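Help wanted!
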Amino acid sequence: MDYISTRGGAPTLDFAGVTLAGLARDGGLYLPASWPRFSTAEIAAMRGLPYAQLAARVMQPFVGDSLTPERLHELCEQAYGRFAHAAVAPLAQLDQRHWLLELFHGPTLAFKDVALQLLGLLFEEFLAREQGTLTIVGATSGDTGSAAIDAVAGRDKVEIFMLHPKGRVSDVQRRQMTTVRAPNVHNIAIEGSFDDAQAMVKRLFADEAMTAKHRLGAVNSINWARLMAQVVYYFAAALQLGGPEREVAFSVPTGNFGDVFAGHVAARMGLPIARLAVATNVNDILHRALTSGDYSAGEVTATAAPSMDIQVSSNFERLLFDIGGRDGVALAEQMHGFEGTRAMQLTNAQREGAAALFTSARADQSDMARAMRWAWDAAGQVVDPHTAIGLHAARALELPGDVPVVTLATAHPAKFRDAVERVIGQRPSLPLRVGDLFAREERFSELPGEYEAVRDFIFAHATPRG
Ligand SMILES: *Cc1c(COP(=O)(O)O)cnc(C)c1O
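Answered by r_m:
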């Protein structure tokens, strides 16, 4: 499988190349040159497969010659063997119509583990074939950082520099990052928001002095391999609810548009999806873009769902490319305009293309709290604030009448237990697998919100390329 950039000006890469590359050299994001498609019979034949086997089956067309099918299956067994639930991503029923897809049974309690446990293994696999060290730079609103650090701590030939916005991640999230003691892990708390941190990471990838000296890799959802691994659970859920003979709708708590873009990919591959609901909190740029075509970034407001406190959603560029005729030159121009003014208007083709599959809803604090209370009162389910926002959208939107609606449960409620306790008066306890998180010593560096400070820190601490 060949991978191309959304901005049309970067070299084509194979799967191994795209996994190690992160952001494309022209500032774009990599996507497969074409979508592999399964027939209805091929999808039906996946029913009942254990998760790791299903994962290997769904991902093989994207991996191409970079791994044999046997090796891909072994890596999936290894990645998903670390999950605390044998089904990896089980469904829980809320009522006649609504379901939760529990994606939080991995080591760090959020859905990010589903992709990052595999990505850590893919890095090691592909780096073993090459010289030198991969320097991962990432920005996190909390969950990517903990999942990525867990996935690469102590691994060969990889080191990680993870930026989080100081004071804006939960204590559980922060401790999951800062108590990991491995020489290849560097945590940096920066002044500013997640968007500021993400902008610095993008700038590092475009900094020639940096890339000449260090081989940079990405664990944010700009990395294609992450989205690929997330496609699998859309198949898993739909197959359990009657797919491919019956359509299913999904509601997805959305920040960087990675998780819901994976749903779009599943649909492109032939999975019958009725609708994809993009659920946002008050940081609602995506909701505004999808309802009125206005993609303009405001100030970030801190909420009880910090992993969605994002105004500039990187992966939205992938959607615009895919539904807008895959014209890299035109998209590069549009994105450069956006980068200059932090605002753009979607074209009619982009709006119509998005409307074919996507719908959206925005939840403020009281919408979120109402949905959380409903899950608790109606079904005895404790859900985290991100999941509650997804559930709000699932219930508020007019989705086709006869399809099951699956809300992606993106985090374990204990990861945001203060916020949960404030709403339903129950304090979810941390699962035993996180260990003595609050007894361990934290270690991180603090830097001002200035690009040069971050760049110099990395120059001072990272291993040069081999
Ligand atoms: C990362 C995250 C999201 C947002 O996912 P995107 O892929 O960035 O849209 C939602 N909920 C939780 C708990 C997360 O960690």
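OP: Thanks! One thing I noticed: The CA atoms of residues 59 and 228 lie 7 Å apart.
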